[in-house]
Amino acid sequence: MKDVDQAETKNIVTRLKTVRGHIAGVERMIEEEKPCEDILLQLVAVRSAVQKVSVIVAQHYANSCLVEALDKGENRQEVLNKAIETLMKFNQ
Asked: pLDDT tens string for the chain (92 positions)?
């Protein structure tokens, strides 16, 4: 992602490392044959962590990437349609 300040980049990377840790935890739990309920709770944590990263990136997209495209004179309707399509995929 371009035009992201160092603090935001660090925040995103830290959150992604958290996701990696959760995934590793799920792998261990499966290998150790932990109860399904515990595994599912860990998967909820994974989903939540990924969602938080997704929101940060989506906010950057809306605040920077879309504005930049419009400032460059790209077709407003095309930019908005692409943004809607991208954000709809994000919400699925």
From this structure: 666 788 888 999 999 999 999 999 999 999 999 999 999 999 999 999 999 998 888 888 887 877 888 888 888 888 888 888 888 887 77
Q: How far apart are CA 42 and CA 40, in angstroms?
A: 5
The count of structural domains within the chain is 1
**1 lies in some domain:** no
Indicate which CATH number applies to the domain containing 58: 1.20.58.1000
Q: Indicate whether 34 belongs to any domain.
A: yes
- The pTM score is 0.73
Sign of CA dihedral 84, 88, 90, 91: positive
> What is the greatest pairwise CA distance in the chain?
56
The residues, any chain, with a CB within 8 Å of residue 80's CB and separated by 6 or more, are 66
Find the domain containing 36 and state its range.
Answer: 6-91
